[in-house]
């Protein structure tokens, strides 16, 4: 006989310990389910108990079943069995916090009206006990008419009993009791139900009356026509006249019932005990001390990411170099080899090298979030964020974007207001991320170091970071006043009690983010790298029909031979002949010249030259333009591309980077048109890079999080235009100053 | 005597008498436990302010707090 599958939906307030319970029940047998048209993710898990197979679905934490957005509607629809891809749950498991029973039971009373058996899991009983709260589970079961199980999800206490209760509940009747709204309301709901027809469940009919301007109302007006708005207004008017005005009527009925039910079952101390959380909060939410602690935490976080992740990044880079070297010494030159080494390994490798940083950042954020600190940070930062039309909840995503915009944008999921979330997503890429660093250090080193006071490079770097910090809030404010206009969302946030972060939750977050990142690197970035590689590789023969690769390899061989000879001679203690030195340097120079000629003639080079008029107002020649074009899929690409163009060979170590800086410096100064304005050009390139959206993974993640191509396209266009205009202004102003100083 | 919530100082206790304003907002606050008859304590005044309601801490902005009318209690 095949096991029976019982479907269970987990419902509860945020911070009721729902996820901990979900993990404790299903262990590793879980996966994330996405639903078409919405951004919410619902976890699904399975477990077997005796001969029953259970399927759990973990709905997003919510304070009530009054849907305010399409995302919340999905949860309600799923519970009512109105989603085609998801059968209706057999049992609803309502998870409540024992130390906050009154408020959490409010949601339970709504769950009781869904027409399915309900099991009440009273979680975190240890916390309640510590505060002197005593809960009599049997009395609570008698008063509420529900199956009540007292549990502690983090230790697994009471889970056996819970599994038994779930098995018994499957197939039992729906709860009969629960709060009764006044008769006047029931009559009105019945009348409206007849008008709407049998397709609308009673639960939603009642929600349409209760939630003024809520999502149910919007949805029904959309399906039944605008006349319904007038009907609902009239209904609410009659209810107000009958003395049960919406919205107060629901809260009164539900809380009244909850109070009566808990009166006999729950004993609370008269004076609320001061908890550890309270003591910690006295410091951490204090405007002065809390802000100081917050700054220290953030500093340590970025410092740790930089200190720990850099060696790991170097290790990955080194590994890639080793593999490239191995392939180059065993495979004959040609398109296939070049594609494998330059396109795939170096291209994707430069992106994968950021994996350690991303994992660490996510680990930190998961720990801070899981222990409850993030809510405090959002509380402290709300004053600052409200000035640019956002709320405290937008702060952490923007801060994370300083490391990388991809996890930063993923972290916007905690922002419940759609417009706030969108505004945060759209400005996150303006924050100076770690991929911009190589570009900054290269150009600042080349043009703003020698001949200036030693404060200038640091100040320039700081200034570039400040561009992001100042432009992002301004753009957010502009968006909130134009495209994303709307009443400022009312801001209310719960600060959960502190708890020890769960290793499982943190590990899972890190694993998921790493996996998502690798998948992107393996698909989108790989594809864009191959395209850039192809445009830089073809055509690969010179005017005489000779392959550039073969010619370059010949020169390199010549140089290597000369170096061998020099080594032999020096080992033998004889003086090195001058011509030998000359041969070696000439060969290297020739190889670099060939390389540059090849890139100049490549399709990307041709495009760069064709677009020169576009770059001219920014002070760029075709070579800078081409490097910038090539770096659109991933901004790190520019360093390598500049190295190829400016005949400095490959940029691998500090020494070579200095050579590249020197080469660029020399090249720019050699050109009479450029020579005078090198600093103006450098500044214009820097400002462009600080503001431009040159990151395919960011655009991909915006697409994924907003479920539309419109927003990534918008982000790309507005940032590119902004970068162009700012670079133009920078160049013209800097040129004016150069001419007149 | 009724006061808007944002007139209270840190450490003061009060009973909520009335929550006014947009119905959606009133419901939202009720779901979070701020409703007629509940007792709260102001932990931090200002905007955003920090409140202790039953066993949970909530933070709200000052402008939104003015829509909550309370009567102060000497705890």
UniProtKB/TrEMBL annotation, chain A:
It comes from Fimbriiglobus ruber. SUPFAM superfamilies: P-loop containing nucleoside triphosphate hydrolases. This is Ferrous iron transport protein B. The keyword Cell inner membrane applies. Mg(2+) binds at residues 23-24, 26-27. Keywords: Cell inner membrane, Cell membrane, Coiled coil, GTP-binding, Ion transport, Iron, Iron transport, Magnesium, Membrane, Metal-binding, Nucleotide-binding, Transmembrane, Transmembrane helix, Transport. GO terms for cellular component: plasma membrane. GTP binds at residues 12-19, 37-41, 58-61, 123-126. GO terms for molecular function: ferrous iron transmembrane transporter activity; GTP binding; metal ion binding. The chain crosses the membrane at residues 288-306, 351-375, 395-415, 422-447, 459-479, 517-538, 677-702, 714-734. It is found in: Cell inner membrane. Residues 545-572 form a coiled coil. PROSITE patterns: G_FEOB (PS51711). It comes from the Bacteria. The keyword Ribonucleoprotein does not apply. Residues 5-172 form the FeoB-type G domain. Probable transporter of a GTP-driven Fe(2+) uptake system. It is a multi-pass membrane protein. It holds the Pfam family Gate.
UniProtKB/TrEMBL annotation, chain B:
Gene3D superfamilies: 2.30.30.90. The keyword rRNA processing does not apply. It comes from the Bacteria. Keywords: Iron. GO terms for molecular function: transition metal ion binding. SUPFAM superfamilies: C-terminal domain of transcriptional repressors. It holds the Pfam family FeoA. The keyword Transmembrane does not apply. InterPro entries: Fe-transptr_FeoA-like, FeoA_core_dom, Transcriptional_repressor_C. Residues 3-72 form the Ferrous iron transporter FeoA-like domain. This is Ferrous iron transporter FeoA-like domain-containing protein. It comes from Fimbriiglobus ruber. The lineage of its organism: Bacteria, Pseudomonadati, Planctomycetota, Planctomycetia, Gemmatales.
